[in-house]
Design goal:
6 helices; alpha/beta; five-stranded antiparallel β-sheet; Rossmann fold; 248 residues; five-stranded parallel β-sheet; OB fold (Dihydrolipoamide Acetyltransferase, E2P); elongated; 2 domains
Length: 248
């Protein structure tokens, strides 16, 4: 893709827009082509102004930055920025390009730009490490099919596709492929109820519908919404039994 990349700033604070534009001016690879200060103006702008990246504030006049997500093309990256640390991190860090805290630090913005260039050119991801989630959290998931908000308690399993990709299995039977490693998920998900049962699978033990024991002594489990069973490694089996006893 040719540079400069085209960007849009959406924030209801004039000084915040000015400050971000000033900082971005130090990065010739980004060209800010327009701005919006409220939901109505942003919707109109997004429908007629193609962009590679949106710098999106969460709290806007007339609504929330959340409301704009369906209006942003899936090929366009989103960088959330907000004055509320936990609010941004817990809701959006999974597969959003990045989040920035106000006031935006120059070195943090430089890291975001580097990640944007890498994502645009499909280089190896330099993802911001996931912070530990809590049961009941909602996460933002970006896939080739679009962007989704997912509650952790609806996730029944996460399986590895190899490399940097994993599949989120929901209790509805839907699946989302995301660019996160299983190791990152295992570190970030609350335990219990989540447990890594195999080198390629993490499950929500509260959403297991059935457990079978095979002739060779191995266990297989059937999480809700999964298309098939998952094997429990011998190493994980004792811990699985212990965790199940804890929630019964």
């Amino acid at each position: 893709m040719d540079y400069p990349l085209k960007g849009i700033i959406i924030d209801d604070e004039p000084f915040a827009r000015y400050d971000l534009r000033r900082l971005l001016g130090k990065h010739p690879c980004i060209e800010i082509v327009n701005e919006a200060s409220d939901i109505e103006a942003a919707v109109a702008l997004l429908s007629g102004t193609p962009a590679d990246v949106i710098f999106l504030d969460i709290e806007l006049r007339g609504g929330s930055g959340f409301d704009l997500v369906p209006h942003i093309p899936s090929r366009t990256e989103i960088v959330f920025f907000t004055a509320h640390d936990e609010y941004a991190i817990r809701a959006f860090e999974v597969n959003a390009l990045d989040y920035l805290l106000k006031p935006v630090a120059e070195d943090r913005l430089a890291n975001t730009i580097a990640r944007l260039k890498g994502r645009i050119h499909q280089e190896a991801p330099t993802a911001v490490p996931l912070k530990p989630f809590r049961s009941g959290d909602r996460i933002f998931v970006k896939t080739d099919e679009g962007r989704f908000f997912v509650s952790l308690n609806t996730i029944t399993a996460i399986t590895s596709l190899g490399g940097n990709y994993t599949v989120i299995h929901l209790d509805t039977g839907k699946r989302h492929v995301v660019r996160r490693t299983l190791k990152e998920w295992d570190i970030a998900l609350p335990a219990p109820p989540f447990l890594q049962i195999h080198r390629a699978a993490v499950v929500n033990i509260e959403r297991i519908e059935r457990i079978d024991k095979e002739i060779n002594g191995a266990y297989i489990i059937f999480p809700a919404g999964c298309t098939g069973p998952l094997t429990v490694s011998r190493r994980a089996a004792p811990l699985l039994k212990e965790r199940i006893r804890e929630i019964l």
